[in-house]
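Exercise 7. Predict the joint structure of the components listed below.
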Amino acid sequence: MNVPERSHILGAGFEVPDTVVTNDDLSTVLDTSDEWIQQRSGIKERRYVDDDQGSVPLAERASRRAIELAGIQVSDIDLIVCGTLSPDIDFPGNSSLLQQRLGLEGVLAFDVRNQCSGFLYMLAIADQYIRTGGARHVLVVGSEVHSSGIEYADRSRHVTVLFGDGAGAVVVGPSPDGERGLLTINLHAEGSYAQKLCLLGPGAMHKPRVPEGWTPADIYGWPQMDGKLVFRHAVTRMTEAVEEALTEVGATKEDISMLLPHQANLRINQLVAMGLGIGEDRLANNIDRYGNTTAATIPILLAETLEAGRISQGDLVCLAAFGSGFTWGAALLRW
Amino acid sequence: MHAVSLCALEAELPGRQVGDAELAAEHDVPESEIARWSKGRVRFESDQGQGPAVLLAAATRRMLERRGLAVADIDFLVAATNTPDMFFPGSGCTLQSALGAPPFGALDVRANCTGFLVALDVGSRFVASGRYRRVLVATADVPSHMNRRDGISPELGFGMSDGACAVLVERGSAATDVLSVRVHTDGSRAYDYFCEFPASRFRQGDSLQGRNRLPADKVAEGLHYPRADVEALRELARTRVPAVFEEALAAANVEQVDATLVAHLLPDVEEELGQRLGARAGRIIRPDMLYCAGSSLAILLARAASDGRVQPGQTIALATSGSGASWGAAVLRCPS
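Solution:
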C-alpha cells in the first residue's frame, strides 16, 4: 500500500435543523433578553431539532454532502469517527448509528468524546490512520443535539442560551499533490479543570450512576459552567495553540489566510484574533446564527466558508478550539 | 514509519471482591440465578466515588514507577471506557487530573466492547507516525455502577466485573510489537447490546421546558440500564471473531501465534471460540474474572503477563466481540 505523507480535507458538508430559535424565543422561558445574550456571546439565534430523531440524521446529511464534495463514493469510506457530547442513545455511540444509515456495515466506526475540541482530536486521528496506512478515506463527523440536554431554568441560563443543534462532516484523505493538506496539529488538555465545564451525570464515579430518587430538578443531570474562567482560559489557550502551530511549521501570524475558531463565544474569538493581529477579513464566524454546536462548529464553519469562496487553493487555514476538559488545540492546513 | 514498542502494562482491580452469595442476599435474587452467569469467576467492584479514573491512576502510577518513568514522560493519552466518570468531559481528562499530569492531549474514545483494541490501535498509530514518542493507553470500565441487579438483564448485572488497565506504547528501536489490529463495526446490530438513556434524540413534548434527555419516567421504566440480547451476541462471536482473527494474522504476516487471549460477556462463548479459532491460535487463555467490557482484553493480557501465562517475546493474539456491534483481533509481540 502506498502510504501518503500528508492528509487533507477533501470535502466538507453540514446540516442544521430548519427550526430557528431566537433570543426572544428563549426569553419567554428564561430570565434573559436578546440584548443580554448578544452582548455576552454574539449569538442572535440557534437551530433546534423539532422531532425525536437526534443528531444522527443531521450527521448523515452532512456526511453525504462532504462525500459528494470530496468526489468519492460512500463505499470509499473505510473509517468513521464521530464526535459528540450528546449521543442519540447512551451507547453504542453515534458512529454505529451513522454507519448503519450510510450502509457501511463492517467499516470500523467509533466515537470520540472530546467536547468542543472534538473535531481537532478527530482530525488528528484521521491523519494518523491515513499516514500509517490504516485507512484511505476517513469520515470525520461532529454532530450535536443540545436542545434536549440543556436546562430551561434561570439557574442554567448562562449555559442554555449558548448552545444549538447541528452537524458538520469532512472527508479526510490523501493529499492530492503531497503539498496541500494538514501541516501540523497540536492537542492539549488540562483535566484539573474538568468540573469547570461539565455534565456530572450520569457518571460512573457515582454508584449507582443514576442515583436513587434522582429527579430532573437535580443539577447532576444538567451541564454546569464557570463562564468567566472558561472565557479567560479559552482566549489564552487558543492563542497559545495557534502560536505553537505556527512555530512548528515556521510560519508567522501574517501568513494565516483564514482563522476558523471554535464557535463558543464571539467575544472569545475576537480577542484571540486581535491577539494574533488577524482582522475581520481573515476571521470566520457563524455563531450569531447557530450558537455553539461543540464538536460540529468547526466543520460547519469550514463548509460554509468554503461555500462562500473565502478559502482559495494555497491559503494557510488555521483551525483552533477550546472547551470542556479543559481541552484545546490548533491545526494548520495548506489549502 | 516508526516501530511501536509495547513497553509496559499494569492492571488495577478494585480491592473489594463480591461473591454470588453476597449479591444474592443484597438483591434478593436466588444465588443459583447469579451463578448461572458468573460461572464461578471472580467479581471485583468499585466503591462510591471510585470511577475509571481512580482505578487508572493507580495502574498508571504503578506502571510508570516500575518502568522508572514519570508522568511528565508521557506525550499523549488515549482513554477508552464505556462507563465514564462523568457524562462529559471524558475519563481521559479526569485521569489526567488524578495523575497531576502536564497539559498533554487527552483523547477519549468510545468503542464499546472493542474499546481497548481501538485505543491501542489509535495510540500505536500516533507513535508509528512520529507524532508522539510515548502514549498512555488507558482502559477501564465500572459496569457495577451502571447495570441493574433486580434479576432483569442478569447476564449484565451478575456477569460483569469492574477493572482497569494502563498500557504504555512508545517509539521502538527494533521490530514493532503491535503487529496488527483489526476491528469492525456493524451499526445495524447496535441494539444487540445497548443502553438507551440518556438519549439526546428524545425530547418529551413540544415545549422547551419539556426537553430532557433523561426524563424521570424513563428512569422509572429502567431504560437507563443496559440491555443485551445474549443469543445475538453469541451468534456475532461465532460468525465474526474467527474471521477477524484470521484477518489479523494475515495482516501481521503470521502463520500461527503462541497463545490467543479471548474475552466475551458469555464465558461459554469464550470456550467455544477457543475451539473455533483452531490450531493457529495456539494456547487459548481465558479470564478468571468476570467480563469487564472493552477493558477485558487489556486486563487479561496484564494478568497473563504477570503470572507467566504469556512469556516475553511470544507472539500472541487477542480477540473479542460485543456491543457496537463490534468485533476485533490484534496480534502482538508480548512485552517483557
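Discussion. The two ends of chain A are 25 Å apart (CA to CA).
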